Amino acid sequence: MKKVIPLLLVALGIAIAGYFYIIGLNYVETEKAYVFPDVYNISTDIGSKVVDIYVEVGDTVNPNDTLLLLDTTELHLQKAALLSSLSSLKHKISSLRHRLSILKSDYEYYSKMVKIDGASEYEYKRTKTLYLSTLEELEALNKNAEEIISKISVLNEEIKQCILLSPVKGVVENKYAQKGEMVKPYQPLISLISLEPYILAYIGE
């Protein structure tokens, strides 16, 4: 029994030493560690007038809090014009699809009939020309519609960018714009100091 106790103590000592060895592989002691706050300069790639500012210097903000609002009047006017054009274009596309359906049936009919001398070559070629030209016109209108939809998507993103949100939890350090002021794209408007700083440590060899 007396021999067992020393063996247990030796095993316990080895286990403790192994634990601190593993810890040492993952953690290094150092006295040269510094805490740096992240500073965020809030801007947008949209040039417009500042409609309102919702924060003051020293305010604490959370992620997605609204900081500043830019005027979107011109962007909404452009979007409205594109939506109107798209609506008109969709109406034309719908009518053209109906017409194309009829021309396709005629074209298929004359394609069969001309082979058995049930229709003249002239009727066949005329129907084919009408069908192909209408198909080409429809493809062009669809392409125009896609381009308009793409432009509307871009405008929607630009409208979103006119609402400036806080990316982090932080404190308002400074404001670089005033209500009613015209601002340029990429111009810093508000700076935030993050309340989630990072730590920089220097580890000696």
Describe the structure.
This protein is α+β, with helices and mostly antiparallel strands. It is built from 3 helices and 10 strands; from the N terminus they run αβββββααβββββ. It has helices at 4-26, 73-113, 121-161, and strands at residues 33-36, 39-42, 48-53, 60-61, 66-70, 163-165, 170-175, 182-183, 190-194, 198-201. The strands form 3 sheets. It has a 4-stranded antiparallel sheet, with no helix packed on it. It has a 4-stranded antiparallel sheet with strand order 6-5-3-8. It has a two-stranded antiparallel ribbon with strand order 1-10. The longest helix is centred in the middle third of the chain and has 41 residues, at 73-113. The protein is rod-shaped, with a radius of gyration of 36 Å. The two termini are 47 Å apart. Mean pLDDT is 84; it is low at 1-5 and 19-30.
Question: What's this model, at a glance?
Answer:
The protein has 205 residues and is α+β, with helices and mostly antiparallel strands. It has 3 helices and 10 strands. It starts with a helix and ends with a strand.
